[in-house]
Design a protein that fits this description.
Elements (H helix, E strand, L loop, with lengths): L2 E3 L11 H11 L4 H22 L4 E3 L7 H8 L15 H9 L9 E3 L6 E3 L2 E2 L13 H9 L4 E6 L1 H7 L1 E2 L9 H17 L4 E5 L9 H14 L5 E5 L9 H6 L4 E5 L19 E7 L9 H15 L3 E5 L18 H4 L5 H17 L5 H16 L6 H8 L12 H12 L16 H12 L4 H22 L16 H4 L3 E4 L6 E4 L2 E3 L3 E7 L6 H8 L7 E5 L1 H6 L9 H21 L4 E5 L14 H16 L7 E6 L8 H7 L3 E4 L7 H9 L4 E4 L12 H14 L18 H25 L3
Parallel strand pairs: 1-12, 2-6, 5-7, 6-8, 8-9, 9-10, 10-11, 11-12, 17-18, 18-19, 19-20, 20-21
Antiparallel strand pairs: 3-4, 13-16, 14-15
Helix pairs in contact: 1-2, 10-12, 14-21, 16-17, 21-22, 22-23, 25-26
Length: 759
Amino acid sequence: MPVAHILGFPRIGAQRELKTAVEAHWRGALDEAGLHEAARALRRRHWQQQRDAGLDFVTVGDFAFYDHLHNLTALVGASPARFGVGPSPGLADYFAMARGTPEQPALAMKKWFDTNYHYLVPELAADTRFALNRDWLLPEVREAQALGHRIKVVLPGPLTWLWLGEAEAGLDKLALLSLLLNVYWVLLAELKTLGVEWAQLDEPILSLDLPADWRQAFVTSYGELAGAGPQLLLATYFGDVSEHAAMLRALPLAGLHLDLVRAPQQLAQFVDEWPQDRVLSLGIVDGRNLWRTDLAAALTTLHAAQAALGERLWIATSCSLQHVPTDLRLERRLEPRIRNWMAFAVQKLDELALLKRALRDGEGSVWRELHVAASAIADRRRAPSTQVAAVRARVAALKPEHARRATPFATRHVAQQAQLRLPKLPTTTIGSFPQTDEIRAARAACKAGTLDAADYRTAMQAEIRSVVERQEALGIDVLVHGEPERNDMVEYFGEQLDGYTFTQNGWVQSYGSRCVKPPVIHGDVSRPCAMTVEWSTYAQSLTDRPMKGMLSGPLTMLFWSFVRDDLPKREVALQLALALRDEVVDLEAAGIRIIQIDEPTIREGLPLKQADRPAYLEWAVQAFRITASGVRDETQIHTHMCYSEFNDILPAIAAMDADVITIETSRARMKLLDAFADFRYPNDIGPGLYDIHSPRVPTREEMTALLDKALAVLPADRLWINPDCGLKTRGWPETEAALTRMVATARAARATLADATPA
């Protein structure tokens, strides 16, 4: 009989209960005991849902108050020395490292492989020491056992944790491996003592192009851990690991998990020669997207695998379900037809259980359920929205000139300077300003029908007027309207585009307590009418300073949505690019001379394997340039990119040909700029002078130190001054304090540069 399990479950709660509790704790409205009780309630619910669905294990260890990789940092006692918390951090220490303190900036954040989840980067030093912190994980194991559950513990694997860490200069991260493995050994031994049967160690870095010494480290590591505790299931996901098939077969494991959603072809390299004493877990239900599983196709694959593996076959989700919303039953406003095409985390548990029953008892035992699923799949394929002739024809008619500005940057730069007349080191912000309770209340009232459209517009215009006045008082050079009308940088646009639909409770975690509700692309995309022109032109009417128009770019609209899986992503991106191009042209026609097209996701979409990257970057750059290239030289195009490592894709970023790029650099202390300088990036750059993801307001001295680092590697006439990202999640007091210091830093630097200029 096949075993059914999952790699992890969403921890935030179907209605963001964890976010509510954590933020109440941060405000001082909920004590630590209350926060722990809220967490226990969520874990109990999620474990029971897995058990009720008929899974063979409940998964323990996937819960985190902030981040699962940060959990492991706390568990193995590897807190950075600069926080002074020692080898046994408590919850307050855990949050201090995640959010920063008045004395210390927070740990850096990076994207979790090619997802929109951000993890906290471990800091590794030659003197990093490890010690098991028994206040983490082990209490949750005992908690689940006390409830009578059969459990499988999940942990990030030691090599993935090390690989994703940031090492001090000159340190070989693998030099820390032996010390880290000692703690894993002790932990696994304690789990065995507690009666845990299986431990799942997640090693998604196997989907990357690993150097030889890291591949050998798998042999060493899992050789040492064999027999330490429970049976080990090594879990890979997000890509093809067939190149490591021989090595993985040789490891002394009890089982291996493969992601067959992202890489179905890899099964052939494993199934026939898989050792007789080991299980093979097949990730057949998509953990990254919210569409129903094609159960008929899944069963075809699973029947063939079952014939070869017999009782060694396990079935699972492709990866953790933390990347999908929790429960479709809460979606009462979705169009019923489209709702019937979907499966959230709870429904994916049911799909796994159904597949298990079909394999165990025969498909005839579940024929009704299989028929319902097949009907939904067929209905989606023939729905009119999935193929719109006019949209397809416009994409087919694209020509190279649609993706090209009329003149090179150097020529455009002169024209833009003549028009905009900006000072050296111009100051700006990334787009959004604090979304106050009043803004949210007005938006909610408008949606509920208790505030009419005219009154809502008046309320938003009042907020825009206030934001413009505040920026002028601060002395910012290039203004933004603050985006009070926008619920989310993707959802707002998706609501105005054909081909999208929206959920009420489709929340997923982005980082910490930050949750997003991605829109759903279910059909061909087009723009019926202008989306931002009214707000931008109103804001420009209030000031003589340049006002930026603000758009989310085609890649961001693609990757921060739940995208259709029946059309190549390239085709969807080009549809989005054409829709947004129309908006850019309309903004220019309305008198907006600076237009920012945010693309924080360009690296997020990057294939994990080097060989697959050139093709992706070609169409990604094409999509951006189609969006941006319909304007005159005098119109300045900006783009913004979030936490990403750009070193290896700088040629593609340069090829996007944005006049100005703003990037997040403060947590990494401007290290990223070295790559831009070495590459000789030709266009303007705005490196962030302070981290907006922390409530901490940096000092003038800190900002000056960062700006000095930027000026040391990049010419002053190519530098802009700005925060790391948008200010939506911050409060006004800290925002104004930080921006006051930022503007003062810029002005002081201008004065220094002027003094240094020969008369």
